[in-house]
Write a structure and sequence with these properties.
176 residues, mainly beta, single chain, 33% strand, Immunoglobulin-like, 5-stranded antiparallel β-sheet, 4-stranded antiparallel β-sheet
């Protein structure tokens, strides 16, 4: 048996479909009922409240700051002012996060040599050692450490070759 859809098009080309009464729907029991939708709306409202509570404990990243940052052991910013060590902070779910970045040259050795110091108020907590790897000049990878002191140390490069003109970028994010 075929099915038909009744439709009327008025003089302005508007498509008009017939209205259906609830009593005419054969499988009405399997359709969502108004009280089911009400419960769903309550659950959505609770979720929105929870998301708003979480977001009220979050902040955007602050502006970059160089305050308390210093170059050590002959390190120099690689080129422009934006290469000088700097940091910014934000709060996520009530936890303060820090992001530090720099690009330096003048590096002549690894062996956990400290090249950048940072203020004690952005020192990582809850860990004794934090490691980062980043690409550097000529396809090398540099391995960095943040240990007990407020310094970023160069542990090594992938080939243990150091040149004072190579660039060594660093970007690290941690919680304080």
């Amino acid at each position: 048996m075929g099915s038909y859809t009744a439709a009327i098009i008025d003089k302005d080309d508007n498509l008009l479909l017939p209205q259906t009464s609830v009593a005419s729907i054969i499988d009405g029991d399997s359709l969502a009922k108004a009280n089911d939708l009400g419960a769903t709306n309550v659950n959505i409202s609770k979720l929105v409240e929870q998301v708003n509570l979480i977001n009220s404990n979050n902040t955007a990243w602050t502006d970059w700051s160089k305050e308390g940052m210093a170059l050590l052991n002959g390190a120099q910013q690689y080129s422009e002012d934006g290469d000088y060590p700097r940091y910014r902070t934000r709060v996520i779910n009530g936890n303060k996060q820090v992001q530090v970045k720099f690009r330096i040259k003048g590096v002549t050795s690894g062996g956990d040599t400290a090249y950048v110091s940072f203020p004690s108020n952005i020192k990582p907590t809850g860990i004794s050692q934090l490691g980062f790897s980043s690409p550097s000049s000529s396809g090398r990878t540099a391995s960095w450490l943040i240990e007990g002191e407020n310094t970023v140390k160069l542990h090594a490069t992938s080939d243990n070759n150091y040149n004072s003109q190579f660039w060594y970028p660093f970007v690290g994010t941690w919680e304080v």
